[in-house]
Design brief:
single chain; 377 residues; alpha+beta
Length: 377
């Protein structure tokens, strides 16, 4: 205990921090979260050294969360202090290390004395402004990581715990119960612990994700060699044609890009079939633009005689900003069918109201495309 009496307050090796290192999911959607801080409140789940614990509630329907490991252990693995998932990709350590061929299990000592010395050395380097001896910051994106990474926060992970009284059939609080009234999951996912997640060993969540990644289907090129168009789904107003061009131009010369924002899709046509196949091989299941994960499939250019008809992987888009148009029919014929449907709906409503009494005045706007507003007086 002699070294605890030194004048240097950092000589004890205990963590002192003003803000936690956590992921966006654990922080929650509320930008005005209230957080409590307790210095040296608990010991780290990995190195067992006292550290500053932060506690907060991510949302109204969420449970209270707190930091579980110290910031030294957090920086060594580049993980969140709460969920211990990778801060950049949102994946378990075992998945990330397997994809990058990184073996860090033996790099961190397991014994108490060596582990404390290892942590103090990294703390000293951090205070001196030296970089950590880690390869995570210089790692290049991997195909497996791009396929599995989560691009948006998953706030369902912050839900309240399952009510143990409900599982036994004894909960009497009903809707006022702050815990979830659900049956717990069984199987390998029910057996998780901090150290397996941190060291990336025998993590059931990581095993499941890698198994799903191996089962992901690949895009098969259609037999028609004249098809050179790719369909991109999930496009919103934040994505422009220039963004798509920057992503797809690396695989070959692009003939045209057609962006249909109301339908949340786009069509990219290459000049050659070989370039289109290269794009599907390089971007299948890992197409991310501006942090938005997009779907990719083979498409087919617009055919004559079909208004707004675009087929992509067997799907047809029926264009029309004010309601669904009938493919293959003219504008006048579609409007006549729409008006006829409106009259049928109005006759049904009128017959139902006649039972209640005499209708003095009636007005009808029979435009189903614009909302079909009906009114009586």
């Amino acid at each position: 205990m002699a070294h605890r009496l030194l004048r240097d307050e950092d000589a004890d090796g205990w963590e002192r921090s003003d803000f936690p290192i956590i992921c966006e999911t654990c922080l929650g959607a509320n930008p005005y979260v209230r957080m409590t801080k307790a210095s040296f409140d608990k010991e780290c789940k990995i190195c067992t050294r006292p550290f500053t614990v932060f506690r907060w509630r991510p949302g109204r329907d969420a449970r209270y969360k707190k930091t579980e490991i110290c910031q030294t252990c957090c920086k060594l693995k580049n993980v969140c202090q709460v969920c211990m998932l990778d801060l950049e990709y949102g994946l378990p350590v075992q998945v990330r290390d397997s994809a990058l061929n990184i073996s860090t299990t033996d790099a961190i000592p397991q014994s108490d004395v060596n582990r404390e010395y290892f942590a103090e050395e990294h703390d000293r380097k951090g205070r001196a402004g030296l970089d950590y001896e880690s390869s995570f910051g210089k790692a290049q994106p991997n195909d497996l990581l791009l396929k599995l990474q989560r691009t948006t926060p998953y706030y369902k992970r912050n839900r309240a715990h399952i009510c143990s009284f409900f599982v036994r059939g004894e909960c009497t609080r009903g809707a006022e119960c702050p815990y979830r009234h659900e049956m717990p999951i069984t199987g390998e996912l029910a057996h998780q612990n901090f150290k397996d997640r941190y060291y990336g060993v025998n993590d059931p969540v990581a095993k499941k994700m890698m198994r799903l990644a191996a089962e992901m289907p690949s895009l098969e090129a259609p037999e028609d060699t004249s098809i050179k168009t790719l369909w991109v789904g999930g496009v919103d107003s934040r994505i422009t044609e220039e963004d798509l061009k920057d992503k797809f131009y690396a695989y070959g010369e692009i003939e045209s890009i057609r962006l249909i924002t109301p339908r949340s899709c786009a069509f990219i046509t290459y000049t050659t079939r070989e370039d289109a196949e290269k794009a599907t091989e390089g971007l299948a299941n890992k197409l991310i633009v501006k942090g938005i994960r997009l779907r990719l499939d083979w498409g087919r250019p617009k055919q004559e005689g079909i208004e707004g008809g675009e087929e992509a992987g067997g799907r047809k888009l029926l264009e029309g900003g004010e309601g669904e148009r009938v493919a293959g029919k003219g504008e006048e014929e579609a409007e006549e069918e729409e008006e006829e449907r409106g009259k049928v709906v109005w006759r049904v409503v009128q017959g139902a109201l006649m039972v209640l009494g005499e209708v003095v005045q009636e007005r009808a706007w029979l435009g189903l495309a614009s909302g079909s507003c009906l009114g009586v007086g």
